[in-house]
Amino acid sequence: xNKFSIALLVLFACLPPATAISTDSVATQxxxxxxxxxxxxxxxxxxxxxxxxAKVLADRFLAAGFAxxxxxxxxxxxxxxxxxxxVRLHGRGKERPILYIGHxxxxxxxxxxxxFDPFSLTEKDGWLYGRGVIDMKGQDVAMAVSLMRLKQExxxxxxxxxxxFTADEEAGGDANGVQWLLDAHRDLIDAQLVVNPDGGEAxxxxxxxxxxxxxxxxxxxxxxxxxxxxxxxxxxxxxxxxPIYRLSAALARLSQFRFPVHLTATTKEYFAxxxxxxxxxxxxxxxxxxxxxxDQAAIDxxxxxxxxxxxxxxxxxxxMIDGGHAENxxxxxxxxxxxxxxxxxxxxxxxxxxxxTVLADPRVAISTITPASPNPESALxxxxxxxxxxxAHSIWPTVIxxxxxxxxxxxxxxxxxxxxxxYGIDAMFDDLDDSRAHGRDERIGVVAFKEDVDFTxxxxxxxxxxxxxxxx
Length: 472
Prior knowledge:
By secondary structure, this protein is of the alpha/beta class.
């Protein structure tokens, strides 16, 4: 442990107590709302860091009765504003620990773009507005108050429960907390498995709660630059070698291309269970795909919908483009950025080879901007899925639980790369057609927040008592 970490631990041992949490669920909800307000009002964007928010949480845990040695606030010596908090509830040691992770940082929010102050918690018409309420300070609060409640109940589970509140998951990422903790303090967070609410999804449409997902994998992100160059010249003497035209033609070919269908164990089960929510042709198509059908008509129909297309295959799309240097000169260069999201098990080399074929122009060069990092799929864990089903159905009897592969990236990739199975589980229901994470007027329903606090407490308690949740 470095000197900075030790100094912080000493500091928190001397802090005055805050109001302790009650074991009463009403008091828990009151505290949750108060803590959410406090965290939202702390600007934890990349430029500001997460240490202040971690300190606030550390104070709360100490007041709830956690020993100072079980409340560790840690930061890299070269990034003191990127604080991480690791809290441990001791069990009886019969099983290996379970680790919950949640990032404290948020993406930038410009007040002039919002209808409300993004760094104040605002309630209106049944919604809570503020940067981070859904990604993911709301879930951080749910984990925090659940762990405090278990402590106050004098709960001694079969295994330790560890919760790590971490830095730098969002834009910037020069001091990612999960990666740093695995490198520098693996002993503090070593566990049988990880639960990461940031990777989970609770989907609803038109107010109807549909499913709670158990994320077992996520696509690897991989970024390429593609570039066409030429000698240029005067715009009065155009040529067929114009890099902007060549690059545009190559991108047009890419826009019409679909990578081959590649189903994993997770996505097959996803389509099988998701079919239960659908009717007619959509249900039939999902069932057929889950069984490995090669019916092209069914594949085309599923590919035409963004939500299901991204579960079927690797995708690559243009996200940035630039070229030329003067309005009266032929361009000497045109360049585009391609962001790919790659199905686990496919290599970066195979994706690049496919792109080269699709672009179909040897004078359009491909280079790597951001290389892929190892991100294996975590095996479906039946005992874990059953626990999620039992808790979910105790609150929402008609909701289904399904495995899922995320098209985006989360901190779970760092744990998976180190051999720790990781599962995204979240029950903060959000409208699939109006998700505002990272966007203007980010919000979560007042009821959805309360229900997620209850769900998190029940699940944390159940998993802490469950025998062998994963085969590792």
